[in-house]
Amino acid sequence: MSDAALDVVEFLLTTSVYSDDRTLDENDLPPSFRQVFWTGGSGGSDAGSDGDDDGSSRRRAGISRPLSATNATAREATGIERPWEAVSELMFTERDEFSGTITITQRDLAEEWFLERVDDERLLENPTLAKHFEDHETYDGEATHEEARERNRPIQADRAWIDGLLEEYFDEEEDEDMLDLVEVRAPEEVEITLDDLVLTDDQENELDKIAKAIEHRDYLSQIGLREIGKLLFVGPPGTGKTSTAQALARDMDLPFVEVKLSMITSQYLGETAKNVDKTFEVAKRLSPCILFIDEFDFVAKTRRSDEHAALKRAVNTLLKSIDNISLIEDDVLLIGATNHPDQLDDAAWRRFDEIINFPKPDYNMRADILQVITRQMKIEEFDPQLIAEATEGLTGSDLRMVLREAVLEALTEDRTTLTQEDLLNAVEEFEERDNLKNMDMIEGDHEALVAGGDIGKASDGGHSHGHDHDHDHDHDH
Ligand SMILES: Nc1ncnc2c1ncn2[C@@H]1O[C@H](COP(=O)(O)OP(=O)(O)O)[C@@H](O)[C@H]1O
Ligand SMILES: [Mg+2]
C-alpha cells in the first residue's frame, strides 16, 4: 500500500476524530490541516459557532466542526493529487458521488489499518491522533498527546491565524493607517536566523538569559519575579538591532509584531491612542510573541517637544501599555530599539529591565561578519582579515553594502566569482560615497571634499585615516 493511502487515511481519521472530540482545539491539528479548514475573520455568513462570547456581530476567525473530508480538502491537506483513488480500494472507505464527501465506514478497521503502518515519530506530528491513540488498547507505542502538542507549531504562528486576528481587530477602511503602524510577521516569514548574525559575547549572554527566562516563566511567576522580559537594543544604525529581534522570533518560533513609532504622525491622531491600545491587545492575543518597538527615541522626543496634545496622549497610552504588558503574565517579549540613546528620557529608560548594547563591530567581528555574509559567494584569494582592517568604523549593514557593490560590479564583467581585489575596490567606493554623504551636512567643508579624493589609497597598510564614520545620518537599510 502506498504512502499516499497512509496520508489520506490519516487525514480522514483526523477529521473524523476532531469532529467528534470537542475537547480538541485548533492546536491539535497539524498546520497543513488547519490551513484547509481555516475561515477568516469577517464577511461570510456562516458564523463560527464558538465565537459568541463577546456578543459582537463580527465573525470570529477559526475552525468550525464538523470538518468535511472531500477530494478537494484532502488534496489541499496532503498534497496528493487524487486522494480518493489512493484509498478507494480500502474496504473501510466510501465516497458519496453527489457531495464528494469521503467517509470512513468502519472506524475500527480504519484505525487498525492505520496503527499497523504508523510509527511514533509520525504520530507525534498529529496531536489529534496522538490523543486518540495514546489510551487505545491496540496501540503499544510511546507517543503521547502532551508531547505531540508540544511539538506542533502553535496556531498563533500561522499566517492565516494572524490575518484573521488582524481583520477582527482592525477595520480595513477605518484603520487603514494602522497597517503602517503595526506589522505582524509569522516566524516562517522571517528569513534571518541567529546563525546569520555575529553577536558580541555580551549580546549572546543576554539573549541566552532571556531564552532561559522564557523557558522557565512558570517558575518565575511562582516566585513572584515579574520584572523581566523588556529589552532595549541600543546602538548606531546598521548594527543588527532589527535583525536580532527578528532572528529571535524565527528561532523561537514566535510571531513578530512590529510597531513603527515614526508612523504616528499628526495626520492620524484621532485614532492613534486607540490603535496603540489595539496593538497591545493583538500582541496579547498572538502570545507568545515578540513585540518590537523601533525608534523608541520617538517617545522621549514627543514628550519633550510641545507637540499636539493628541500625539502626547498616544505616547502616554504607549507607555502605559508597556507597563501593563508582561512576559510572565502575557507571554509577550517586548524589545525596544533606538539609534539615539542620548535622546531617551528617564521615563523611557525606566521601562526596560535589560539594556543591550549594539556597538559598531570591532576588527574581529568585522572579519566574522564578512565570513558570514559571503557564505554563498565564490571569492578568490578571500582574506576577510585584510578587509576587516580596511573597514574600520563600518557597521554590519555597511559591510553588506560593500559586498553588494562588489557583486554588481563583477556582474558588469559577467563574473560571478569575485576576487579580493573586487572587495577592496568596493570598500574604496563605499568610503568615497560615505564621505560625500557626510559632506552634505558639513556646510562648506571644501577641504573635506578635496581630502575625499584620495581616501581610496587606504590599502597602504598604515591607517592614517583612522576615520570614525559619523553615521548620524539615519540611513536605514
Ligand atoms: N552583527 C551583524 N552580523 C551580521 N549581519 C549584520 C550585523 N549587523 C548588521 N548586519 C546586517 O546589516 C543589515 C542591517 O541590520 P539591521 O538589523 O537593520 O540594523 P539596525 O536595526 O541596527 O539598524 C542586516 O541585513 C543585517 O543582517
Ligand atoms: Mg533597525
From TrEMBL:
Species whose genome carries this gene: Natronobacterium lacisalsi AJ5
Record protein name field: AAA family ATPase
Residue span of region Disordered: 36-80, 452-477
UniProt biased composition (Basic and acidic residues): 460-477
Family: Belongs to the AAA ATPase family.
Domain annotation AAA+ ATPase: ranges: 227-362
Stored InterPro entries: AAA+_ATPase, AAA_ATPase_domain, AAA_lid_3, ATPase_AAA_core, ATPase_AAA_CS, P-loop_NTPase
Keyword vocabulary terms for this entry: ATP-binding, Nucleotide-binding
Chain segments annotated as coiled-coil in the UniProt record: none
Cited PANTHER family: AAA-FAMILY ATPASE, ATP-DEPENDENT ZINC METALLOPROTEASE FTSH
GO MF annotations, alphabetized: ATP binding; ATP hydrolysis activity
Taxon lineage: Archaea, Methanobacteriati, Methanobacteriota, Stenosarchaea group, Halobacteria
Top-level taxon in the UniProt lineage: Archaea
